[in-house]
Amino acid sequence: MESPTDRIESLFQRLETFTITTFELSKLKLLHTTTIIVTSLIVRISVIIMISLFALVLNIGIALFLGELLGKDYYGFFIVAAFYLIASLILHFFLHRWIKKPISNLIIKQTLQ
To answer: N or C: which end of the chain has fewer CB within 10 A?
Structure first.
């Protein structure tokens, strides 16, 4: 028959084992979540970079084409710059919520998995 001291010692050993296991499990869950978030961001950032380079070259081509049509190359660049100014104002005032909310939801979703 076990003495009360042996039972308490056994209980503390189980508690220690449980605590260590819980801590290790928490570390692994954190590592898993961090890995998912970082890899997702890397993929998205690389796609954004490639699309940005495409857009940059396309915009230079459009500006040169418009400049050739208008007689001066810099006119085309002014027109393209004005287009982006108007587009950015529209995005800032009207579509800000449409961009901010999905990104916030993505981060929350990835964190809670």
So the answer is: N
